Amino acid sequence: MVGSRGPSDERGGGGERGERGERENSKREDDPVAEAFDARETSRTRWIGLVRLSVARLWRRATKTTSGRIVATIAAVAMTVALLVLVTGIALALADGGTTSENDATAQIMPESTDLLASVNGVEGARLGETNERAATIRDEPGVDHASPVLIEPVRLEHDSGEDNPQTVLLVGVVPDDESRTVAGLSTGALESGDPHYADGSYTGPQRGEIVLSSAAADRLDATQDDDLAVSSSQFEAMGVESPAITVTAVEEPSGESDDEDTPVALVHLSELQTFAGASEGELADQVLVWGEDDAAAVAANTAYPDETVDSPDTTHPSLLFDDGLAFVTSALALLVGVTICAAFVATTAGMTVNEDRRMLAVLESVGFPTHSRLAVVAISTQVLTLCGAVLGGVLGIVAIHGVNSAAAAGGAPGAVAQAHPLFVPYAVIIAFVAGLIAIPYPLVVAARTSVLAEVSR
């Protein structure tokens, strides 16, 4: 019959398909690319299984069996990492000016280096000289709108009414102009333009006696606009000079993204602060700020101070740690000590945990887990615990930074003791991961010495 197929035809067709399948399998076996792909898939599946086994085992131990060792490991790592983050935050605060660095300038000129021993001994660090004269030269350059030296001094202020309750405030000396500019997070608009007391370097001109308080400074001094304040008389008794009186012209909320909003800061005219701070000799200042076009401001700044650092103001960044000697040494020592202590804790607790889990490792060996798979379970478990502790420690460290700053502010500190940054958490995780890698060999050695026969005999 036309179109009909017999059994022999069906068998023949099936045989042909079978032969084609065998040929395809043979070709696949002979294809090195296909074999490598299969090997990668198998290896990936095996590692996923080992990770799932390790995490499930840790979860079971943490929720259903003895969890003391797990809690101890996570707590040890968390406390170590929290201290590392706290000390790093303190180092970052040393490198950064905090609220006093908040400004809207185009460029800033900073001393090229800071004396490490001066910072340690509490002596003033490096400052710029001839700042009033050179700032005037910068202002005359084309494309530059304004330039002002900035001097920062902690000063004790009190009410001029005679109340004997002086409070420490960070005074920031600036040269205001007709435009409202931001320095130390405060506007210069409430200060009268110019700096007449400078008087071409003689410091004999009239004093304005004006001050702009931040809200934190106003709260600390219990002062409002138009109140009269005086510099603590104890600073002038030795010189036999009457304390200068100053009037609050404005109380403002600090602008910017700094964590230092509780720092008591105030703006005054530069030459007046230089006079009673002893910085008039040499026209000293901590930095010079330049406003104007980007290129013009940078060129003018580099021309006036060719040997100093000129950069663009920015928010606090951990890279500042590399620009300050004391901050870098502090953070480096914290890193070294943190990694060492963290690795020691992890190695000890992980080794004790593996010693308790010898029977489990023997069971894995008896059901066919090769040595490298058993060691992988130990390594993965150790790193998972370490990373959990690192995340917790990073969060605790940032909380500790805010707590230390609050305590310091309550104790009368003129600025933040430590600075927090979002990069601290991933930094903590990376450091803990490295510490875990250093600690892993010890528990692996303990695990490698486990044998089925020894555990059965026990």
TrEMBL record:
Residues 1-37 are annotated as: Disordered. It is found in: Cell membrane. InterPro entries: ABC3_permease_C, Lipoprotein-release_system. Residues 7-37 have a biased composition (Basic and acidic residues). It is a multi-pass membrane protein. Residues 334-451 form the ABC3 transporter permease C-terminal domain. The chain crosses the membrane at residues 70-95, 326-354, 375-404, 424-448. One of its GO terms (biological process) is lipoprotein localization to outer membrane. Keywords: Cell membrane, Membrane, Transmembrane, Transmembrane helix. GO terms for cellular component: plasma membrane protein complex. This is ABC3 transporter permease C-terminal domain-containing protein.
